[in-house]
Design brief:
about 450 residues; about 35% helix; 3 domains; 17 helices; alpha/beta; Helicase, Ruva Protein, domain 3; globular; single chain
């Protein structure tokens, strides 16, 4: 750790202003893991005195970050200042390129997603079972396929079984196979999915739906690498790497008695939690671009782009169905737009009830400042409501800080200062969309 006498001339030196709270300690550790020299001070005056010893560009000032943002905030790198003097964030794709492996199909560069990719990279060659948890539609199967594709088993095809799609009476037979004449109609021997996946990866999707009576047999397969076919008398050795996926909270299923504690503990150590889309909103622009491109090809329709008003609705929606829901909405919008720019009217009705609600369909360049309303649930902290309202207004004004400040009735400098404290605020509006969206946004511009 550098001291004051080092003069903070290292381009990788970062100064954090804040107390010795757990959040600051966690942020400091995270930065040091990425080879940054980090110093902390408790007062702004202390920070000022230390900055006097720094050569221009040699230090980055990081304000104290709320606890809930530590795990999801993108890394702040050296020289994290744009020409306007505002804090900016690194492009996620740059970090993705530093990762080993193939993550094709997993779209985005947010900190939350990068954490998942780093974990895949870490777990890929382990022979232990992996549990992938997350809400419906978050892309758990894509994560499973990336695990297999980047593992030393990738030369063989991954085998998949959906535990929710196979009836309880058949699932044991599907997973473990059966011997000839094991039951009425068993005219031949049947090889189950475990044997089919020997030397490869077996994805057990919707593992929370696996019947409890079958769970001990799965546990034995995990612990001993042995299975027994239905109607068989001998154990069969298999070399299978099991990846289990679920949208259940298995700890709660254990308490309810529907999932065995010992099987849960066997799966839990290597767990990848896939974030909900609302937890990685900065990935929405890239996802929109991707789905408009692939959707137009699949549906054989022209991609006319998307208006900033429609984008604001997509950005502000909570996405209970996550990425799958976003893809469905955009497929529908492409068909309704018929090659023209996608407008709010082309989006499903439920979007009109999201926290950014369209009261009037605005024309491009309209000065009608009453065209959007923002609603919040009762009981949220005032600071949180203010932050959300400012970010929604910034999105509505296409990232123009001068106009946003005018609408809010505050000085541009005040707006800049508030945005700096939000850390992820610059990701809340469309970025780098010059060819993809109407009214492209340059978050670093005041025009």
């Amino acid at each position: 750790m550098r001291t004051k006498t080092d003069s903070f001339t290292d381009q990788n030196h970062i100064l954090i202003v804040g107390d010795d709270s757990e959040e600051v300690v966690r942020l400091r550790e995270l930065l040091e893991q990425h080879d940054y020299q980090v110093s902390t001070v408790s007062k702004g005056s202390d920070a000022h005195r230390q900055m006097l010893n720094a050569e221009p560009g040699g230090i980055t000032l990081v304000p104290q970050v709320p606890a809930q943002q530590i795990d999801s905030a993108p890394m702040v790198t050296e020289n994290a200042q744009n020409p306007a003097g505002e804090m900016s964030l690194p492009e996620g794709v740059r970090v993705r390129e530093e990762l080993d492996g193939d993550y094709a199909g997993i779209i985005g560069g947010s900190a939350a997603l990068l954490q998942v990719l780093n974990t895949i990279n870490l777990f890929a060659n382990s022979q232990a079972a992996v549990l992938i948890s997350g809400e419906t539609g978050t892309g758990k199967e894509l994560v499973a396929r990336a695990l297999h594709r980047n593992s030393n088993r990738s030369e063989k095809k991954m085998v998949t079984a959906n535990c929710a799609a196979i009836s309880e009476s058949l699932i044991e037979n599907e997973l473990f196979g059966h011997e000839k004449e094991a039951f009425t109609g068993a005219d031949t021997q049947h090889i189950g999915l475990f044997e089919e996946a020997n030397g490869s990866t077996l994805l057990l999707d919707e593992i929370g739906e696996l019947p409890r009576a079958l769970q001990p047999k799965l546990l034995r397969a995990l612990e001993e690498g042995e299975i027994r076919r239905v109607g068989g008398n001998s154990q069969i050795q298999v070399d299978v790497r099991v990846v289990a996926a679920t949208n259940h909270v298995l700890a709660q299923d254990v308490k309810k008695g529907t999932f065995r504690q010992d099987l849960y503990q066997r799966l839990k150590p290597l767990e990848i939690v896939v974030p909900a889309l609302r937890e990685r909103r900065e990935d929405i622009p890239e996802l929109i671009e991707h789905f408009l491109k692939t959707g137009s090809q699949e549906q054989d329709v022209k991609n006319g782009g998307i208006s900033s008003q429609a984008f604001a609705l997509l950005q502000g929606y909570d996405w209970p169905g996550n990425i799958r829901e976003l893809r469905g909405f955009l497929t529908r919008a492409l068909l309704f737009a018929k090659g023209d720019i996608i407008l709010p009217i082309h989006l499903p009705a439920e979007l009109q009830g999201s926290d950014v609600r369209l009261e009037h369909l605005p024309q491009e360049g309209s000065d009608d400042e009453e065209r959007l309303t923002v609603s919040f649930p009762i009981g949220r902290p005032l600071k949180e409501i203010e932050q959300a309202f400012i970010l929604k207004t910034l999105t509505w004004m296409n990232g123009n800080k001068t106009k946003t400040a005018k609408v809010l009735g505050i000085a541009v400098r005040t707006l800049r200062d508030k945005l700096k404290t939000y850390v992820t605020s610059e990701c809340s509006v469309p970025q780098n969309c010059n060819r993809k969206f109407s009214n492209p946004v340059n978050p670093g511009s005041d025009n």
